Amino acid sequence: MSSKSNKNTQLVSSGRKKAYTHGVVNPVVQRASTIVFDTVADLKEAAKTRGDKTLFYGRRGTTTHFALQDAITELEGGEGCALYPCGAAAISQVLLSFLKTGDHILMVDNAYEPTRDFCDKILVGLGISTTYYPPTIGAGIKDYIKPNTKVLFLESPGSITMEVQDVPAMVKVANEHNVMTILDNTYGNGLHYRPLEHGVDISIQAATKYIVGHSDVMMGVAVANKKYWLTLRENSYLLGQCTSADDAYLALRGLRTMGVRLNQHE
Ligand SMILES: *Cc1c(COP(=O)(O)O)cnc(C)c1O
Question: Which residues sit with their C-beta closer than 6 Å to ligand 1?
Answer without folding.
Answer: 86-88, 112, 159, 184, 186, 206, 208-209, 218, 220
